[in-house]
Amino acid sequence: MKTKLTPWLPLAATIVVASMLAASVSRQQAERVNPTPVRKRQSINESWKFTRNDPPNTNGLAYSAIKSWVLPTGNRFLKDASRQVERPSGNLGVDVSYAQPEFDDRSWRAVDLPHDFAIEGPFNTQGGGGMGRLPSAGVAWYRKHLDIPARDYGKSVFLDIDGAMSYSLVWCNGQFVGGWPYGYASYRIDLTSCIKPGQANLLAIRLDNPPNSSRWYPGAGIYRNVWLVTTSSVHVGQWGTTVNTPEVSSLQARVNVDVAIDNDSKQQASVRVNSELFEIDRNDRRVGDARARIAPVQLTINAGQSVSIKTSCVIAKPKLWGVSSTQKPNRYVVVTTVEQNGKAVDVYETPFGIRTLRFDPEQGLLVNGERIQIKGVNNHHDLGALGTALNFRALERQLEILQEMGANGIRTSHNPPAPELLDLADKMGFLVMDEAFDVWEAQKTPQDHHLFFADWHEQDLRAMIRRDRNHPSVILWSIGNEVGEQTAVAAGGEWASRLTAISHEEDPTRQTIAGMNSARPNSPLVAQIDAIGLNYQGAGLTDRGERDTPQFPIFHQAFPDKFILGSETVATVSSRGFYTFPVTQSWVPAGPKAGEQDGVLQVSSYDLYTASWSYAPDKEFATQERYPYVAGEFVWSGWDYLGEPTPFNQARSSYFGIIDLAGFKKDRFYLYQATWRPELPMAHILPHWYWPERIGQVTPIHVYTSGDEAEVFLNGKSLGRKKKAQYEYRLRWDNVIYEPGEVRVIAYKNGQRWATDSVKTAGDASKLLIAADRATIVGDGKDLSFVTVSVADKDNRTVPRSMNEIHLEVSGPGEIVATDNGDPTDMTVFRSHDRKAFNGRALAIVRAKPGQRGRIVVTATSQGLQRAEISLTAQ
Ligand code: GAL
Questions:
Q1: Which of 377, 440, 482 is the best mutation target for the ligand 1 pocket, counting ligand atoms within 8 Å of the beta carbon and taking the most?
Q2: Over the stretch 388-400, which tens digit does the pLDDT of each residue have?
């Protein structure tokens, strides 16, 4: 079988339609225009069969050997038709039993997607921890029996995979139908020609995860959602709408809606296309009547062709999408209907937001005319103990905790995120720097994606932009992170220019950027990107200037017309609740005698110990204040993540997070909150005050507060009142002599009492305490409750350094999916119900069994301690 070459979409015939009707349309009218949706988008996450490895004697499925089979899947994303590849004739994998429908997979394991097969462990304690020590490398197969109803005969059927790690190959009923190498890409496989409506159908997917393919834990398996999309043969194409808002005022907003329609049939099609625009709420429900309607456009599409139309309308008194916390993330939806012979054949919804963006080289970022300081974090894609298997609630929790801290930005380091991240960012009012690549042609690890970058950069980048461009949260397209080509090589300039051109073709409304830690203004890459992202060097690495000078002014001077920000900053390392003494005056690289303790693979949480290339948060705050043209920063990193356990390669997960892997706040959380939410009255004391062995020894107290002054009391005696000097973000009492009791702080702002905090020395551990982030969860098998267990004394004070073994159990219609404690060195598998407390705390992640309701009781026990239980409701 040969596949036909697909037209590159934006070059297909484009019809410009300026007609518009800025009228309010009644709901009844709207429903008449949009009869029963004819497009079906079904989740097919359930009931897959899974196994590791190929069947014996399988050869020849390595990507390098079969790329001419796989490349055609990306044809639609190649502008230059001469780069499009025709699939070879015949079939691939006829001799591979797992790919064949008749293979008996009953002995395989039953799994539901999203699925990360490596997160089960065990941890491999040999070798380095860069990739998280979990068994993510190797081949895996997934199979699914699909029933396609006979009434779908003649329909177009697509498999949409949001992400599979990696080198996917897909067979449908034994026929090879496509694949996609990049594990972070979302892609579509057209099943139309091989599916048998009314009969049993079989999907087989092979993944291959090379070892040494990543600098962090990549995860493994089909780790994002998978959809079966059924449409009429004439339908809106994949990611076929582009919505933007070129003119916005308080009176009205112009909304441009481009629609690409595919005619997969063998006949010419004559269609009418119209769109209506509604306001939507946080749950995507339409609010009120249509706010605008785009009059029908008539067009003819030849068999097998795509046509794009450009339409436009005006929304009066628009509610703008904006950034939390000063603006509100209002959203709308475009409902596009395609009619053929007077009948709706497709209805397609595109949520969007109305907002303006200005990338100002002097003022930074302006959203709706207001300067917004980017208070962002870098996050990798794993969800801690859940691995990379996408879970909406776990992701939402990450963003909620970040928002509580005052963060308003996410950089999706260093790859396209799960689509749900962008949905959440839209709904919660985050700004997103959407990143495509960590490597170009120059490798960082031997088997990373430099191996197919030349073949796939265009398809990967266009796919990411087409998927993500209607999200109001997305502000920048990052074409690379610290790529090897960033320094003096000409290839850096050539690639940057090519990738920027692609981005502009796909989306002229946003800028391209790259994160650069060693490029200099004269590096060829820099001239070719729209905006400048500096990693660490922006602030000059250390405050002592011994490794570098701040590069923001140097780049700003060399490129006065370019928008500039700190794409990666800080990289302070710490372990929650762990402190070493003496405490350094200024920040230093963590090392023996600097934040580390012999034999204990933890780093002190005074937030003064860093990776060797980095510095403490305070330095970046000062830099951002000193250079107000810098649009903000993305801190490395928001949450701890699996892999890259600098400075201890023996560990399993990072120390960089402001929030630990279990989601517990480290002290640094409060340093950011104090600075990023100056209006929130708060104060936080560190360290904890449980140091029986330190009586009489110097034990410094630091206070993070959104106030400007504070007085600390130890057992009622004042240790003095201190004021923050300019460019100071924490208050320090360096010479405190430890005695047990109570440390209390009263913070002031502008001379007025503002906030207080206190810590008291705990007694002996006597009980467990238990608390859940949500007491009621949906019984859909996906929703989660995050249950925290703490070791406490008789007065319910957490015992800070306790490491008691805790056993967790659940009764009723629930289960414990994973446990954790935030300790980067803990090699107990995440699904264990036995978890040591780490500095007083452990976490159980609980879900309701699918379809079940009722009372779930979670019990925590530990030898010698009073047990604790909590009841949750599954509804
Ligand atoms: C950066 C890199 C990140 C991470 C970070 C740790 O140089 O871009 O991916 O490795 O260092 O500080």
A1: 482
A2: 999 999 999 999 9
